[in-house]
Amino acid sequence: MSPLERFFDEAQVLFSISALAMPTNTTQKKDAALDDVLNQNIEATEQIKAAANELGVVHAVLSTPIPPQSAEGDLVTCPLSAVPA
Length: 85
Fold this sequence. Notes:
By secondary structure, the chain is mainly alpha-helical.
């Protein structure tokens, strides 16, 4: 192999390596889109966690039994005939 051929072979290898190492515009757009989707996913996960915590509190309140003597006077009952149609 002549020195000139070897030079072109080495240059081709270096060009191939640099082409792989340098992100293209398309790659950068895909990376930005993936980052955006991942950030949205993180935000949605945080919102779901917050909603789950709120539902846990609501469930705890609603599932707490109230002794009958504690509920006296809290409820007003009236016959259905007294409710306007």
